[in-house]
Amino acid sequence: MGTTRRVLVDGVSFSIDPGERVALVGESGSGKSLTVLAALGLTPEPVRFAGGNIRVDGTDLRDLEPAAVHRLRGGRLAMVFQEPSSALNPVLSIGYQIRETIQAHRSMKRAAARREALRLLDEVDLQPSDEMARAYPHQLSGGQAQRAALAVALAGAPSLLIADEPTTGLDTTAQHGLLNLLLRLSRERFTALLLVTHDLAVAAVTARRCWIMYSGELVETGPMDMILADPSHPYTRLLLRATADNGPAPGAEEAPKADPADEPPGCSFAPRCPLREAPCLTAHPPLLPLGPRRSLRCPIVARRRSP
Ligand SMILES: Nc1ncnc2c1ncn2[C@@H]1O[C@H](COP(=O)(O)OP(=O)(O)OP(=O)(O)O)[C@@H](O)[C@H]1O
Ligand SMILES: [Mg+2]
């Protein structure tokens, strides 16, 4: 059987400080989920982590024993997955799943864990009752299930919470509620938050820093307010315009979807880019600093901006 190697996510490098809120933004298939799953050492088969470092407080995740990685995940590093149904175990009650995480990651006796589980239900704005604790995931609405998944994630007292499209499938009111909840929790607990979303508007209200991803690569990074006020990469500008128009990025319908596996020789965004010049089709641009706090993967814009 032949094996094929396709690079799906490449050269993505970032760090998050304690208590910081960052958004990873990009369209469907750009590699956001793979990036955060790789950061937790959870790449799904047959995807492989081909190289790089994942450091938590200076320790490389890849140097740790599997048991230590396991303690870290669900403990200091927690994730709310794109589908709450896949994060929650369908045959265990919500209360059991929260208590299980508390007891696995914090030294707490049964009775204390039970009380803490009710407190966590309250913290995520679910009814802190025995009835709610005894509920199974299928008995909850989508919004409630996502809150329950959040309570399980918080049960390990994480210092970094990764939320991958946490509002997907929720109605507008539930979306607002969940984003406000994430913000409040991050502020009150001083938990760093990495929010993964295709929606720049969602990112804008949640994060202070922003990483824009296109076709498996970061194309622009910087403080959120600077990116919103002065987007640099042509893809960021498209995203921002789409956000203002409340629709898909212009050109998205007719343009081929960016697939990192296609690996075009030049800039991945070139086929859709209004600023495209001949070299963009042949030379792959690097991500370079743009001033002290930003970075940009577009030599055309960088050249226009340099004094
Ligand atoms: N298990 C897998 N096996 C093979 N290819 C995969 C697998 N998971 C993802 N990919 C590919 O990796 C690329 C990035 O996928 P990823 O799920 O990270 O995108 P995403 O940005 O999270 O998209 P979405 O917004 O739809 O969740 C896509 O081209 C996808 O087809
Ligand atoms: Mg995804």
Q: What does this 3D model show about the protein?
A:
The protein is α/β, with parallel strands linked by helices. The protein has a domain at 227-249 and 262-307. 36% of the residues lie in helices and 14% in strands. It contains twelve helices and ten strands. The chain has helices spanning 32-39, 66-72, 84-87, 94-105, 110-123, 130-133, 142-154, 172-189, 200-206, 224-229, 234-245, 299-305; strands spanning 21-25, 55-56, 59-60, 77-80, 160-164, 192-197, 209-214, 217-223, 288-290, 294-296. The strands form two sheets. The chain has an eight-stranded mixed beta sheet, with helices on both faces. A two-stranded antiparallel ribbon has the order 2-3. Strand 9 (288-290) and strand 10 form a beta hairpin. Helix 5 crosses helix 7. The protein is elongated and about 65 Å long. It starts with 20 loop residues before the first strand and ends with a helix. Mean pLDDT is 86; it is low at 250-256. Bound molecules: adenosine-5'-triphosphate (ATP) and magnesium ion. Adenosine-5'-triphosphate is lined by residues 8, 26, 28-34, 44, 46-47, 82, 198, 259-261. Residues 8, 26, 28-34, 44, 46-47, 82, 198, 259-261 line the site of adenosine-5'-triphosphate (ATP).
